[in-house]
Every structure is written in structure tokens, then in C-alpha cells.
């Protein structure tokens, strides 16, 4: 507290460390993006990748690819996939930071409120019944809609006497996730072999088949999510003091939680509708950033945006190039990293608190 009774700035790790973190994340993001666009079955020099981008914006410094097939591969296949990976990873990182701030728990992540499993139900419905009323956007649109509805249902069911407690919301999310997973299992059973394979591939997560149209759809939602998240940053810092203390400092806790959950539901539903379920990005990235910079959301949110984008872009680069003529599910790679990290986080929490409670 300051002498005037106002809350002081959230604790951090110093401006030099924060500046170094943002520098490393930005440079890493640029390097990984260029390498991801350059590397593949049809290799393109990194200088030509940069030249292609600069040429499009009217800067004639480096030569773009002379081969029209290379130019087409960059702009029609690789660049949309790289940009979509950055958008999806960034929004998952931001939403993970929001959920952890909203619930006051570093183990929280967007899937807690059922958004991923709800989106999977919509995607499975489209796949099993062969719905195409929106063309190529049918599966993403249904995934977006059911993810949003499922999350709002968790919030409504968890409310009691005008409030939605953290523990009640988490337990309600567990129950709704169980029902959604049962619905997915039933749809897998009801579908034919082709539908089952498509459902399994969608649930494992992939950025294959990315298009500029998908990027144009998700980019505005990501932008709105980031802007709203930054506007909520100060109130999330106050919420970290506890619900009662935050109310005394003028925070409408219920409205804050509702807005946060709606933002997470919209952003994550949009992300997973095109990428499938990608686990642990929203858990791992914000927690690592918090360990470096401290808990202040005005730094945590933009850093999580960059960190999530970097992590998913790097994972997609590995998924595309780990095996020849094979595209590994990206959700599998993030789970392989996130699972051990989650267990380490549990052990660290147990040691620090002296038990599991």
C-alpha cells in the first residue's frame, strides 16, 4: 500500500529482467518464424523468406524466391500456417494467464471451464453427421459455438446467490468436461471409420491445412482478447489479494470473473476451432513467465502472448520436420512437454506448502 491508501505497483523482478525477457521472446519469435517458413520438404533459403516478406511491403533489399513454386509454397502454405501458429499459441498463453489470475491458482488453464471439450463436441457433430452448411467453415463454426456455450453453461451452473465461487466453478467444469467427453465417446462410437480417424486427428491438434481465410477469422478475435486482457490487468492484480480485499478496493469481483471467462471462451473457442485441442500451452507459458517477471498482469499478459506464440511456432516446426513425409499432431508434442512440467509444478507446490492441501 502507498501512503495514500492506494495499492502500489505489483511486485516484479526489475525492469532490466523484464526488458531482457521481451527482447529474447521477440528475437526468438522472429527467428523461429523465419526458420519455420524456410524449412520443409521443399527447402527455401531464409534470406529469400525475408526477401519475400519485404518485397510484399515494397522494400527491395533482399531478393525474393525466383522460383514461382517456392513463392507459392511460402504464401499459400507456409506463411498462413506460421501466422496461425503464432495467433493460436499467443491467445492460449494470454487466456492461461487470465484463468490463473481469475481463479488465483497457477494450475488453472482454459480447459478448466470446458471450452476445449465443448468445442470438440461441436467438431465431432460436424464430422460424424457430415454437415457442410457453411462449407469449409462448418466444423470450425460449430466448434466455436459449442465451446462458447459450454463455457457459459459452466458459469451459469456454478452460480449460487448471485456469485460463482472458484471451487464451485472448477468442480462444475470437471462435471461438464466429463459429460462432454462422454458425448465425444458416443459420437466416436456412432461414426464410421473415416469419421473416427478424423475425430482422433482433430483432438490431437494440428495446424495442417491452414489458410489465410482462417487467419483473417481468428486475428480480430485475438486482437480484441489481448486488448480486453490488458484493460483487466490492474483489476486482476487486485483480485490476487483475495475476493474480499478486492471488493473493498472497488473491484466488482463477479463482473470481473464473468468478463474474463467470456473473453477466454471466445478466444479459445476460436483458436481450437481451427487447430484442434492443444494442451498445456495455457498452463506452462504463464507460469514460466510469472517465475521470471513476477505476478503483475501488465507484464504477464503481453509476455504470455509472445511466449505462447513462440512455443507453438517452435512445436509446429518440430511437428512438420521431425519425420520425413509425416506431420505429427502438435497437441501431442505440447502434451509431452506440458505433462512432465505439470507434474513438476505439483511437486514444487507440495514442497512449498508442506503438503497437498
From TrEMBL:
SUPFAM superfamilies according to UniProt: ABC transporter involved in vitamin B12 uptake, BtuC
Gene3D superfamilies: ABC transporter involved in vitamin B12 uptake, BtuC (1.10.3470.10)
GO cellular component: plasma membrane
Membrane protein topology class: Multi-pass membrane protein
GO molecular function, one term: transmembrane transporter activity
InterPro entries given in the database record: ABC_BtuC-like (IPR037294), ABC_transptr_permease_BtuC (IPR000522)
Lipoprotein among keywords: no
Residues passing through the membrane, by range: 20-39, 82-99, 111-134, 141-158, 164-191, 212-233, 258-285, 297-318, 330-347
Chief location: membrane
Subcellular location: Cell membrane
GO annotation (BP), single: siderophore-iron import into cell
Pfam families assigned: FecCD (PF01032)
Keywords, sorted A to Z: Cell membrane, Membrane, Transmembrane, Transmembrane helix, Transport
Family statement drawn from the similarity comment of this UniProt entry: Belongs to the binding-protein-dependent transport system permease family. FecCD subfamily.
Name assigned to this protein: Heme ABC transporter permease
Native source organism of the sequence: Prauserella flavalba
